[in-house]
Amino acid sequence: MNLYSVLIPKDGCSYNSFQEISDRVSKEYSTNLAEGFQDQPEVGKFDSIHDIYYICYKRKGVSSSGVSKTRKSTHSVITTGNVGASRVSKVLRSKQGKLSLLELPGGVYSSVVVDKNFGKVSAWSSQPAAEPIYYGENEAFICISSRPLLCALSLWERREIALSDDYVKEYLLLSYSACGSSPFVGVKTNAPENMVNIVEGKIYFSDLPEQPCLDYKGLNEDQVISCMKSALIDSCDVFEGVPGEPVFHLSGGKDSRTLLSVFSHLNMSPHAITYGKSNGAEPRIANALANVAGFKHTVLMRDLIDHDFTKASNETLRRCEGLIPSAPNQVIYSKDDVVSSVLNQPRVLGQHEIQRGGWAKLMKNNKSHVADTLNKQLSSYVSDDVKNVFFDRLSEIRAKKSFNSHVEEVYLLTHYFRSSCYLTSSILDFSRKNIPVFPMLDERFVSVCSAVAEKNIALLVSESAVFRLIDKLDSKINEIPLHEDNWRFEARKKHAEFSGDAYDLRLKDLVCHPSVPESAVCNNPSSEESASLDINTLDSASVSIIAKFVNKHIEKTGYFKDIVKPEVLEVIKNIKSGKMEEYLSLLDSSKNLKNEDVTFKKFLWRMYCATVWRTGDWLNP
Fold it and tell me: What are 406-441's pLDDT values in tens digits?
């Protein structure tokens, strides 16, 4: 729940010197500080022995101490996320300087621990995409922080901060960073499988703290699903003591309907919200689900602030501390606050990184296909030179890990490098006013799923596990169809209850819901297509505006010429009316034009966001 920055001097530092740094950071970070946090940070030393300092911004109206010590006072702990420092402290143990957890604290969090006996600083995340850890160093300090800009400002004055080209290249390839880059030169993102440690002014990495091992080898499939159910119910204890009703993102897909079922099972009363037009496929499905569960449901139109692409993008970058949105629909909207009437109320997302089985289901059991699958995740519009550098980095990471099978390899790489990462910028934005909550990323639930993976990877990557879990929580949720009729819910074999033709309710059979209460549909005075940023409906006028903006930047700076393929730059240069069909054929005439149209729009949007990002207006308010 806190924001923190921990400073470890390389050669000692007086408290007065640290105070000067914290005063500067407080002043410079104030323009980016979220409204959900106290204006002035808590600052101090972790203990009386070591010169290790912290800057901690606490949430308003939420009781959580910034720093907590264990009962034996052997450690000091600071956390962010939805787990307090005292909760981590209670289960934390150290033997000869090696950390372990007696039990899982639960929730989603990052934690920094200072060992009083050894003067060692260690930091890790339970879910790095949702609660990343950033680190960097200058001549005098090493810094560990929960926010990228806060880390940079702890090391340098704002005017000294430089933007990272490596970050832009990764963003254009994937729409997020997967290999540890951040928006700022000198600031890195800790890898998912690592704990970062600092001893005597040096950084090194180790395995995550040891934790209890779960064994489900003797359980059948139904018993395993029951264990998943219990863990998911336990994960909802994070709502205790948090103000306001939970605001719940309900898309109608597998993840959000799983959360809907557990909320219904626990007799909770969340406020479900869905983005789109009230008669669109996704809002109709979501409304039907909310009606079945008896929850309040709001449909929000996606309208840009003042219908201005650049203004909305700059504001998003400012709020997200330079993390570029992965998709157009992650840019902030003018009516988004209509459901956030209580400061620091829970904002629940159904992201579930552990059951992302799409890659694994497409796999053939050979190593070359693993490489081919990973390679296809990278944009084909980026130059091969840039693409190969990134792919080499990914190959190095793969070489360091061991896998029982190629299916497990893709499953774990998805866990580390794809799932949730594209949401990181949105999570930072949501956390400004709300407390993001991810019950399906709770480490207690994830640990069950990970244990299941060791027993039966096919069960885990099969969506049938999700629908069986829903059935145990609230079976009536499964009566509402998915909004795409080509989804199948099996990996190796069909389950008659939830797959294929047996799943007979489809979108065409669902009653349209024009009866959605007018008060639940929040429209701006103007709702032209040009204001929408749904990538599938991004209109020609908007595409033309974006292309002209990008092309002007290329002509002025020459940037992108060494990153994006020349034929792609030529297409962007020639877009004038926004009708791209004749130009898209230049890119790859063998591909389906409709799919290529969407793919090209996504990439053009990334180039636009990267262009706005490079101007630095968001960094210098």
Answer: 556 655 565 555 556 777 888 888 888 888 888 988
Collapsed DSSP state (helix, strand, coil) of residue 348? strand
Q: Within a 10 A sphere around the Cβ of 296, how many other Cβ atoms? A: 15
Answer with the one of 461, 494, 522 that is the final residue of a domain.
522
The H or E element that residue 3 is part of is strand 3-9
Q: Is the dihedral of CA 69, 343, 326, 418 positive or negative?
A: positive
Last residue of a domain, one of 522, 550, 567: 522
Instruction: Give the orientation angle of helix 540-557 with respect to helix 593-615, to 10 degrees.
Output: 50
DSSP letters spanning 539-590: -HHHHHHHHHHHHHHHHHH-TTTTTB-HHHHHHHHH-SSS--HHHHHHH-TT
Instruction: Looking at the structure, tell me whether residues 147 and 21 fall in a common domain.
Output: yes
Beta strands at 75-81 and 68-69: parallel, antiparallel or unpaired:
antiparallel
Read off the tokens for 121: 């600083």
Q: What are phi and psi of 100, to 5 degrees?
A: -150, 160
Q: Is residue 126 part of a domain?
A: yes
Whether residue 154 sits in one domain with residue 21: yes
Contact 503, 489 (CB under 8 A): yes
CA gap 383, 367 in Å, rounded: 24
* pLDDT confidence bin for 363, thresholds 50/70/90: very low
Q: Tell me how far apart the alpha carbons of residues 19 and 117 are, in angstroms, rounded to a whole number.
A: 25
* 73 and 172 inside one domain: yes
Quick check: 499 pLDDT over 80?
no
What is the rounded distance in angstroms from the CA atom of residue 2 to the CA atom of residue 282? 34
Pair (492, 589) in one structural domain:
no
Do residues 320 and 374 both lie within one domain? Answer: no
What is the side-by-side strand order in the sheet with 271-275? 435-437, 346-348, 247-249, 271-275, 296-300, 521-522
Within a domain: 215: no
Number of domains in the chain: 4
Domain span holding position 451: 221-355+423-522
Per-chain mean pLDDT for the chain = 78
Instruction: Give the predicted TM-score (pTM) of the model.
Output: 0.87
**DSSP 3-state of 126:** coil
Tell which residue, 377, 384, 464, has the closest CA to residue 416.
377
CB of 354 closer than 8 Å to CB of 460: yes
Answer yes or no: is 621 within a domain. no
Query: Distance between CA atoms of 103 and 460, rounded to whole angstroms?
Result: 23
CATH number at residue 120: 3.60.20.10
SS (H, E, C) 468-519: HHHHHHHHHHHHCCCCCCCCCCCCCCCCCCCCHHHCCCCHHHCCCCCCCCHH
| 52 and 147 both lie in a single domain | yes
In a domain, 213, yes or no: no
Strands in 68-69's sheet, in edge-to-edge order, are: 68-69, 75-81, 109-115, 120-125, 195-199, 202-206
Asked if 542 and 530 touch (Cβ cutoff 8 Å), the reply is yes
Claim to verify: residue 157 and residue 295 sit in the same structural domain? no
Pair (558, 518) in one structural domain: no
Q: Of 17-26, 39-48, 214-223, give the range with the top mean pLDDT.
A: 17-26
